[in-house]
Specification:
By secondary structure, the chain is an all-alpha fold. It has 5 helices and no strands.
Length: 146
């Protein structure tokens, strides 16, 4: 879920940058944080630009709103799942990390732990298969020597 949230945040940033580029082409300077609120998004919709740019901005603002809802939904879910993970309370209590940071960190760490466990299991299975192969070779050699 953290990876999906990260992708959505990057998409939202791309759209905000595109809107900023359109505004800049008309000599309008926008503050970076101006599109971080609903009020800022409404103000972007009334910029003095041509009709094609208005349509383009309108579509992008709707997408940003949709991304905001999706990001918020994922953050709530990540936070709820994070609360169930061991170590959450300790991480969340550290100043500067907070609940969202602790949940995100634990979800990423759990992915690494799963990958490591899968690699260990794979290595273990390879060892078992090699041992079984050696036993079958010994049996075949024993039969040949008779």
């Amino acid at each position: 879920m953290s990876q999906t949230r990260d992708k959505l945040v990057k998409l939202r940033t791309t759209l905000k940058n595109k809107i900023n580029n359109i505004a800049s082409s008309y000599g309008i300077k926008l503050k970076k944080e101006s599109m971080s609120s609903e009020k800022g998004l409404r103000e972007v919709l009334i910029l003095e630009v041509d009709e094609l740019s208005k349509v383009e901005i309108d579509v992008m603002v709707e997408q940003i709103r949709s991304l905001n809802r999706g990001i918020e939904k994922l953050e709530k879910e990540i936070q709820e799942e994070g609360k169930k993970m061991p170590g959450y309370k300790n991480l969340a209590s550290i100043k500067g990390i907070g609940e969202n940071g602790a949940s995100n960190l634990l979800s990423v760490i759990s992915n690494f732990i799963m990958i490591r466990m899968i690699k260990m299991l794979y290595t273990f299975m390879k060892l078992i298969m090699a041992k079984m192969h050696l036993k079958s070779i010994k049996k075949m050699n024993h039969i040949r020597s008779m």
